[in-house]
Amino acid sequence: MSGLGIEDAGPQLGRNLTYGMLDAIGRAIVVGDYDGAIFPTEAELAKQHGVSRSVTREAVKMLTAKGLLSARPRQGTIVQPTTSWNLFDTDVLRWLLERQFSIDLLRQFNELRVAIEPEAAALAARVATVDDIERVNAGLKRMERAERGEDDTLESDIAFHIAVLRASRNPFYAQFRDVVSTALRTSIRFTNRVKGRTANVADHAAVRDAIANGNPDKARKAMRALISDVLELIETAKPDGAAAGR
Amino acid sequence: MSGLGIEDAGPQLGRNLTYGMLDAIGRAIVVGDYDGAIFPTEAELAKQHGVSRSVTREAVKMLTAKGLLSARPRQGTIVQPTTSWNLFDTDVLRWLLERQFSIDLLRQFNELRVAIEPEAAALAARVATVDDIERVNAGLKRMERAERGEDDTLESDIAFHIAVLRASRNPFYAQFRDVVSTALRTSIRFTNRVKGRTANVADHAAVRDAIANGNPDKARKAMRALISDVLELIETAKPDGAAAGR
DNA sequence: CAAGCCGTTTAAATCAGATAAATGTGATTT
DNA sequence: AAATCACATTTATCTGATTTAAACGGCTTG
Q: What are the pLDDT digits (tens) for A105-128?
């Protein structure tokens, strides 16, 4: 019980005590601090963090809502298996990334993107409105400016990809904005390290054109090319790439 | 055994007052009961539902964690725009479906599936373990039994699709099990109504074979065919297919 | 008139302490 | 051996008070 550092971390992301505790416990769970151990009772948790039981209970309830905990009388509060965590929750995503850089996680992110984004582009080519296309175009223009050093490379790239998601006019696709921006923020650092090259504006323009011209197949292929590129980079960087036996 | 699925929806929802209130308010928000109106204060909510403020606060906190609400002193609690709802949360998904049958929602579900599942099948063909393949195969066998009236058609179909998601060995894909099973439960009713035919076992077997043989492209195409089929059915049933302006 | 300052006020946030309900565990009874 | 009961433990719930955050309006000041 001594190993748990209750570093209150000063003036961090917690708007208030409850959110601060949510963040602290959430991170601890994701990092694996409670893996073998039994999870503290709400009274113990409150004492450890120096807050009232109300704050503790509300933080625990939020973590329950995100799939990280479950609670029953007499049995106590227990950490749920990772399979029941809500991985598309912004907080969970953040905690997952904060624990450490993992090529595995980066690969899984992009394996998801390669499913979502090409199809989003294809959808967009069918149903995007002029406003949607304008937003995609705006993202592209920012990328062009970034190429000349007049804007931020990463942020403009993110803006482009999110604009495409929105242009699909399907709320489920739009939901991936956090995953995609997170993946891009992480990927960029990695790809820049492996291969010093910026995002290819021309390749992105192909996606924009296909969407604007209402060509779903071309949009899908163009977007897929963009992400496959990153994915291959990641997989070549990982020597233990299975292939064993299969 | 009556052949019906596990049907007792009752017990889980209202395990206690907090979860009951979570469900009631969540449904009310999704249905749109609070759309124009101002959201009640926690004191008012407590009184309206006949529970204490603690229960109310915990329910509100869970809804906040799911992206449906946000709260600040003096401003009060407010319903968040749908864009910030966590659509992949099981509860949100359920509330969304409970409000009414919507072809739009059904279409959006399947537009997502057509991105996720083919790619999951392709991944599975590359990385699935023998256990994974066995699970996929078990799902298929259940479908065969169902064809002979010895098992439940819907449940076996769901088992198959979820097995493929798991076989991708990517936790993000596995996360879609709720969306997929929900979509299937809804789709089946619809497709059966429109076109009296059961899921095609042979087409599903093609997916299984491609995965077992380690052929990603074939697996992707076979799975895509399955879902495109449903999607087309849905789109033909919807006369107002946009095209306006484009 | 505009901009900044400052109480007032309202709602959430937090605390404290008590009671209720659920549920494993183990002893007791049948 | 099985069913039952008593008990301990932990979450669930209730109550009422206090504190803090922030929107509002009025006031002062440049």
A: 999 999 999 999 999 999 999 999
| Chain B residue with minimum CA distance to A68 | B65
How far apart (Å, rounded) are the C-alpha atoms in residues A142 and A130? 18
- Whether chain B has a CB inside 8 Å of the CB on A74: the answer is no
ipTM of the complex: 0.88
Estimate to the nearest angstrom the gap between the alpha carbon of A197 and the chain centroid. 23
CA distance A144 to A42: 53
User: Global pTM?
Assistant: 0.88
Q: For residue A175, give the nearest of B88, B172, B174 by CB distance.
A: B88
The answer to whether B61 touches B52, Cβ cutoff 8 Å, is no
**pLDDT single digits (tens) B21-36:** 999 999 999 999 999 8
The nucleotide minimizing the C1' distance to residue B16's CA is D12
Chain-chain contact of A171 with B126 (C-beta, under 8 angstroms): no
Give the C-alpha separation, A169 to B232, whole Å. 18
Task: Nearest by CB to B114, from A18, A109, A119: name it.
Answer: A119
- Picking from B101, B39, B90, the residue whose alpha carbon sits closest to that of residue B69 is B39
